[in-house]
Structure formats: C-alpha cells, structure tokens
Amino acid sequence: MNTIEERFGFALFGQRDIDITKQTPQLPSADLWQTCMQCGSCSATCTASAAKTDLRKAILQLQRGLVQQAQASVKNCLFCGKCAYVCPRGISTRHIVATINQHIVKTA
Amino acid sequence: MNKPTIAIIGGGPAGLGAAAAIDTDIANVLLFDRNAQLGGHLTDWHQLNPTFTPANKTIDYMSAGTQNDNIIVFQNTTVEQLYNENDQITLKTSDNNTYQVDSAIFAGGYNTFDAHQKEELGYGIYKRVITSADLEKVMNNAQQLGFELQQAPNIGIVHCVGSRDVKCGNRYCSRICCMVGVKQAIELKQKYPNANVSCFYMDLRMNGRGYEELYLRAQQEFGIKFIRGRVSEVSENHNKLLQLKAEDTLLGRPIRGTFDLLVLLVGMEPPIDNPLWATISKGNDGFALETLGLNAPINNKIPGLFWAGTCKGPSTSADAYRDGQHTAIESLRYIKSKSK
Fold first, then answer.
1. A85, HSE (Cβ side, Cα atoms, 13 Å)
2. What is the per-residue pLDDT for B110?
3. What is the pLDDT of residues A11-55, one digit of tens each?
4. Residues of chain B with pLDDT under 70
5. How is the beta sheet containing B129-131 ordered, strand by strand?
6. What is the pLDDT of residue A107?
7. Which residue, among B331, B340, B333, B337, has the nearest Cα to B101 in the 3D structure?
8. Coil/strand/helix, residue B180
9. Helices vs strands, H then E, count in chain A
10. Read out DSSP for B60-90?
11. A89 touches chain B (CB under 8 A)
C-alpha cells in the first residue's frame, strides 16, 4: 500500500499538454533535426529498438522542447548507424544522439 | 460557312486559357466576366506557389491573349441563362442582351469555403482568426489586419479547413491548400522574422513540381514547425489572444498554445451560386463532371456546352489555364463536326 493510488483509490496526474508557444529549454543545434518529417525509417531499422530506443520520437521530443524525454528515448543507442543509412532527409542521426548525450554530461 | 463564335463564361485562369487557345482566324470569341478585372480569384492573390511569382504577373501573361480584335470581352457581365435551340446556343446576360453562339465554354471557377461553418475555429468570432484568402489580401495591401502583431508573434496555420471533412459535406481534398499554407508560412516568416510559425496538418500533400522542395526549405531555412494534428478548439484569453488546443498525434500528447494570429487554409467549393450551375452535369462531390472524357463519362445536358477549370474540381491556376486550353480544342472540334 505504497502509491497514492493504492492508498486513496485515485491519483492526481501531472499536466500532459505541451505549450508550444512558450520558450522551452532547447538544445542549441536545432538545424540537426528540424528537417525530420517523422517517417519513422530510423526507428523501424533500429538495432536497439527492443531496448526502447526510438530516434523518431526523440527528434519529435527535441522539436517540442522535451529534452529530458529525448534523452530517455535514445539512452540505449548502440551507435550502429543504420538509422543514418536509411534516413531519406539525410539527417546525421548519430550526431543527434551524440548531442543529446553531450547535453547529459554538461547538465549532470 | 460563316465564321463560328465561341462564348467563354468566366474570365479566370480557365477562361483566359480557353481564349488564348482559340485561333481567332477560325472563330470569334465572346468572353464574359462578372468582375471589373480579368483574372478571377487570382486578382485577390499575392504570390503563387511554389515560385513566389506575383499573381498580377501571372494574370498579365494569361490575359495577353485577349488583346485581339476578334475577342470581345464583356466585363461586369453575368450570363444568366443558356440554352441550345436548333444547334444554336443562346446566352442571356445580366444587361438584358442575347447572344447566339455555336459553342460555349463555362469556366465558373470555385467558391472559397465559408470558414464561419467551422465554428470551433472561431472565424468571424475572434478577429485574430483569418482565412488564407484574407491573408493574401493583407499581403497584397488590399486589406489591413486590423490589429498589431507583437515583436515575436506566434502564428498558427490550420490545414484542411472545409476539406476532407464530412461534417461540412466536403469529403474531397482541395489540393492546393497544403502548398498555399507552406508558402504563406514562409511569407509570414519573411515579413516577421522573429515569428514562431506552426502548421497544423493531417497529411501534407505536396503533389506538384517543386512543392516537396519548398516544404524542405520551410523546415530548413525558415524553421517552420509542422505539427501533425487537427486544431480542435480555439478560444480567446483575457489579453484578446487566441488559446488553441490540438493533439500532437505523433507524440500522443495534447498541445496548447497562445497565438497572435491563426490562418485557416480554406478549401474550394463548387460555384453553386452561379446562375448557370443548374445546366452543368455534376459528380457526387458536387463539382462538374469531366467533359473531355478522360476520367469520367461525358454527361452533357446541352450539346456544344463545355466546362473548364476549377468548376471540375480543385486545381491550381496553371492547371486551370491548361484545362481551359484543352476545352477550347474540344469546343472547336465540336463545331467542326457539326459543320460537316
């Protein structure tokens, strides 16, 4: 009987909606991922997808300013580079993962 | 045999294309336009996609063919009645004149969707909600916004307003709005460089030459955001700014935001208010049937009457112009077959 839900029979949820017009913390290198059109080729070919790696989602999270969530989406990336091979927009996918990881090191 | 006469009803791109294609050594042309200026909807437009060609330049090019002694242009004239009697088509116009012609081409164009119908988007309720047609007039300096935009305005562009929407009876895709939206996003970004421009789309249908490339440029050079999700609700906050709700369907999370300006990309509708519309054979979508027999069976109630351009379904001005030319050839062929 530990969680709030178990103790009281209900729980309060955090705000789920994203305000896209507010200034959100963003990584400085937006030019790396702003051409992504969310086709999902990268995620479909991902070697680490079993480990919940999802680059498509990570890029979308970066576009919406959700840097923490983006970090979680790529933390098990193996850097195999298959995503870069299949990307139709020629996005340097490993560069994006490296930028996110660098951001973790900087903010840690 | 006397030189035949062809009437063209409508002075937009399709009508001008038909006028340009008719060799005036073979036939005389009567061109009727209900407006004071030739060009149809193009007269309200600022720039055309994807090349950003000024619309008035395009009108100049399209109407160059009407500068001919054998083409008589009737401006501010509506054709109110049209019927075929003994292989002669008779037209009655708003100024109570009657004309006898051998063949007629109806180029009645389209109506823009009335955005008031989508009440949840607040058009006509909140002044900061405008349509894409309104924005073209603003860009053209023919109309004022009526309010100031702050230094870094948040601008939203809503795709598919009055298209692909069973609720307003329009199941079809209006084809041009996606590209108009991307073009207007770029124009707004050029006018307000600090603006934060977001496009809310269901699908992006970049179905023309140079369109996909412009979409990429919009992302790459202008940093325009594309959000897959339809805007569900717009309201006004205490600062008289727009509060907007949508779903980011790719992320699976709701989106909200405070916007300074919302542009609704209105679709195309058949010209139902045209007095001749009842004489035209129509398909299930309400637009006129194809008269060239390419895609659909010809179902022509009045022999010698052809129709061209966007009254046959949404298309770009260039496509309408070319369709006008094709229809003119069909009309000439009809006259030739009749004289044998």
1. 8
2. 96
3. 777 778 888 888 666 677 888 888 999 999 999 999 999 999 999
4. 1, 292-299
5. B129-131, B261-266, B154-161, B196-201, B225-228
6. 73
7. B331
8. helix
9. 6, 1
10. HHHHGGG-STTEEEETT--EEEEEEETTEEE
11. yes
pTM: 0.91
Consecutive H or E run containing B113: none
| A34 touches B at CB < 8 Å | yes
Question: Across the interface, do B251 and A34 touch by the CB < 8 Å criterion?
Answer: no
- Report the candidate in B267, B268, B300, B269 with the shortest Cα–Cα distance to residue B282: B300
- DSSP annotation of A51 reads G
Please give the distance of CA A35 from its chain centroid, rounded to a whole number. Answer: 15
Q: Half-sphere exposure (CA, 13 Å, Cβ side) for B231?
A: 31
φ, ψ of residue A10 in degrees (nearest 5): -150, 165
How close does chain A come to B274, measured CA to CA in Å?
Answer: 41
Answer yes or no: are the C-beta atoms of B198 and B227 closer than 8 Å: yes
Cβ pair A64:B258 closer than 8 A:
no
Residue B156: CB partners within 8 Å, gap ≥ 6? B197, B198, B199, B200, B231, B242, B244, B257, B259, B261, B262, B263
What mean pLDDT value characterizes chain A? 86
| Residue A5 pLDDT exceeds 80 | no
Chain A nearest-CA distance from B100, in A, is 56
Which tens digits make up the pLDDT trace of B260-292?
A: 999 999 999 999 999 999 999 888 899 998 876
Interface check A29 vs B, CB under 8 A:
no
Size of chain B in residues? 340
Q: Which residues of A touch B216 (CB under 8 A)?
A: 35, 89
Residue B103: count of CB within 10 angstroms of its CB: 24
What mean pLDDT do residues A73-100 have? 93
Helix, strand, coil % over all residues of chain A, rounded to 5: 50, 0, 50
Helix (H) or strand (E) holding A87: none
- Note the pLDDT of residue B295: 58
Partner residues linked to B130 by β-bridges: B263
- Please check whether residue A73 is in contact with residue A61, taking contact to mean a CB–CB distance below 8 angstroms: yes
Q: Which residues pair with B264 in a beta bridge?
A: B131, B158
Cα B32 to Cα B55: distance, rounded to the nearest angstrom:
21
Query: CA A4, CA B131: separation in Å to the nearest integer?
Result: 48
The count of other CB atoms within 10 Å of the CB of residue A29 is 14
The span from the CA of B105 to the CA of B328, in Å, is 7
